[in-house]
Structure to design on (472 residues):
């Protein structure tokens, strides 16, 4: 007899005839809308955009299914008397309308949280301010290489809620989880990874404390049979160990770990007590930079109990990286290298990118949408690594100011050349003009994309398109 998911069957029976709210009409919600229609739920959809700003495919689907919808500025005014509410990650559970409905007895959840409740397989979850996409993808590739039927979801991959019916207990699921998805979550993965935590999304979260507490949800509902993998070098994630109920595994670049992984520019070592076992020489990896070696250590730790170590190492060494993350776009005949690092949407991520190029010949293109982050920490790495700085977007003046203030303190050094451009195309043209033999042109915005682009992927694709078109 095949596996029958009794939890899923019970949930489907519950949904029949229930009032269900779906908040947020992104393309990823189409499968959820279809699923709720099929099980007989009474669905109302909500979105803060007007109808002309929403993908026509979604609106046509809503109309075809004869679903009610509430759109525009006061879209949540009709959020009354629902049995279950699926909020989008950007609609935080602190929203007063959601809190009011919860007080009336509504279940407030997300697609990913409900998926985790119903999933019969083993879930490995990854969160962090930086490095989570690369780490998640590495874990996924290692598990696939190990022969598992593996699913990839959360912030990347395919919306998995509608796939839960085909999953079996022996299957593996790897999820990249944002603070917005984790906030108030009542379930945690079997294996949780926290790469690091630095200030981010403070234009949406109330403060840094709320952001940290959201991240902590990835381990707060674990049991003594679960595992959490934490960055020892980050004070916030290191402190998470105090709240861990299961096994804690650390990884570090600076500390002598007694149960976990030590990482440096040459190797990754497994540490148990005083014993050090060399696992991987970083010169054999295709992806470079200390941050990627740390990501690889996370992936090894997360899969150690599931996949043979030699196979995990082989997979890591063959891994060529994730698009928009220190992605080499082009190298010219003059050995000028153009890198797309559009996914770096915060200062800490751009600092990591600059550290991957310990030279003085970087031409950095940065700037974008302002997420209310502090840019002072970025100034010194820019001065240490860059020969020129090209700025665009809302944060251009912020970055310019902190770099100029740092230059004032650096008496006796040549001032960094700083330029401001009105568009990414103008910035690429200028970089082409001022670059010379052996230079590195790095597009690492240190800012979000929303002032000029829909998301970092669209921004990165535009950069690559411009480079391939304009750079000989």
């Amino acid at each position: 007899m095949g596996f029958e998911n009794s939890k899923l069957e019970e949930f489907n029976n519950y949904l029949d005839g229930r009032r269900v709210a779906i908040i947020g009409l992104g393309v990823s919600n189409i499968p959820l809308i279809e699923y709720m229609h099929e099980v007989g739920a009474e669905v109302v959809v909500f979105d803060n955009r007007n109808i002309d700003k929403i993908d026509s495919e979604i609106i046509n689907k809503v109309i075809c299914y004869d679903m009610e919808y509430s759109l525009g500025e006061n879209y949540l005014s009709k959020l009354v008397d629902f049995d279950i509410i699926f909020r989008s990650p950007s609609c935080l559970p602190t929203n007063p309308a959601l809190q009011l409905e919860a007080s009336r007895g509504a279940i407030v959840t997300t697609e990913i949280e409900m998926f985790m409740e119903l999933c019969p397989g083993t879930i490995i979850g990854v969160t962090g301010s930086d490095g989570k996409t690369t780490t998640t993808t590495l874990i996924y590739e290692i598990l696939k290489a190990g022969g598992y039927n593996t699913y990839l979801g959360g912030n990347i991959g395919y919306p998995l809620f509608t796939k839960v019916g085909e999953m079996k207990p022996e299957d593996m699921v790897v999820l990249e989880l944002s603070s917005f998805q984790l906030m108030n979550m009542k379930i945690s993965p079997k294996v949780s990874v926290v790469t690091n935590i630095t200030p981010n999304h403070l234009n949406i979260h109330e403060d840094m404390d709320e952001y940290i507490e959201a991240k902590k949800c990835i381990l707060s509902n674990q049991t003594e049979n679960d595992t959490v993998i934490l960055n020892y070098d980050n004070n916030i994630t290191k402190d998470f160990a105090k709240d861990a109920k299961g096994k804690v595994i650390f990884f570090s670049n600076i500390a002598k770990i007694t149960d976990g992984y030590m990482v440096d520019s040459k190797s990754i070592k497994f540490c148990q007590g005083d014993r050090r076992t060399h696992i991987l020489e970083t010169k054999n990896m295709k992806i470079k930079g200390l941050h990627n070696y740390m990501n690889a250590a996370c992936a090894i730790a997360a899969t150690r109990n599931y996949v043979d170590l030699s196979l995990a190492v082989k997979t890591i060494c063959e891994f060529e990286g994730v698009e928009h993350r220190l992605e080499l776009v082009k190298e010219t005949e003059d050995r000028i290298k153009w890198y797309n690092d559009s996914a770096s949407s915060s200062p800490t991520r751009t600092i990591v990118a600059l550290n991957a190029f310990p030279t003085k010949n970087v031409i950095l293109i940065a700037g974008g949408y302002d997420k209310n982050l502090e840019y002072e920490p970025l100034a010194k790495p820019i001065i240490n690594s860059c020969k020129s700085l090209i700025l665009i977007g809302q944060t251009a003046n912020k970055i310019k100011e902190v770099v100029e203030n740092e230059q004032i303190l650096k008496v006796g050094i040549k001032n960094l050349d700083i330029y401001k451009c009105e568009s990414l195309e103008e910035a690429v043209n200028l970089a082409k003009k001022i670059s010379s033999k052996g230079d590195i042109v790095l597009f690492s915005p240190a800012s979000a994309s929303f002032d000029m682009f829909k998301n970092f992927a669209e921004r990165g694709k535009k950069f690559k398109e411009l480079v391939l078109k304009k750079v000989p």
Observations:
- The CA atoms of residues 140 and 322 lie 12 Å apart.
- DSSP finds 16 helices and 20 strands in the chain.
- The longest helix spans residues 456-470.
- The chain has three domains: 16-109, 113-318, 327-470.
